[in-house]
User: Fold this.
Amino acid sequence: MIAVSLLPIPSRISALAAERDALSLYPEERFSGIIRDVRFRCTSCGKCCTRAFNGHVFLLDRDVAAVRSIDPCALEPAPDPEFCDQNGIFYVSGYALKVKNDPDGSCWFLENNRCRIYDRRFSICRIYPYMLHREPDERGKVDWRQISGLERHGGYDAEISLEESMEIARETIAYEHAFLSQQIAFLECVQGLFLKAGLRHVQKIYDGQMREYRSGAPITVMAYYNGALEKQVICRNHDER
Ligand code: SF4
Assistant:
């Protein structure tokens, strides 16, 4: 199976749309049963709010608006942009939360292992560690995954009611649906721009620009937000790994 990220844009859009269709067919009751079987309980270890454990926190458009109203300094273009054109400009599907310069790369909003905006935390923070998407396992077999970091954080002894598990299942499916829709909208936006402006992705320029970025040079990234691309000039934090 070829990774979606290696396909031409129209094929990527088709693959993501197929994924969204498959998601719509996944029975909520089955997901809800898995949630009750796993019995996950948050132990407030704070691990999931660090780059060391979880990579980056990707934000849906609605979350970007919320971050801007809370603290715009907490935003940065998501890492690993999808494209770089022949002029060295990168394109990425959205924003992520910045992390602090501490050893674990704690989220901008994490203080003393607690989220300081807990009541206003973002979509992915609300559903974590639940997920519902297809991924290859260590042997390359693609299947649905419903929980992230199983047995690497939290406890597994919670009594979760049917009502609560159904609520989690619905919220997680809604998140995954919104995420796929945002990825598709980003690809359509880039596809339209590339066609109109005679641009194309050039992997060699992507790799060269990334090397420059890692050595401290600024790069220009067009970050997708709400149907448009926003220009951002970023430099790598010298402590970033
Ligand atoms: S916003 Fe809060 S819950 Fe979300 S990753 Fe940051 S500290 Fe954790």
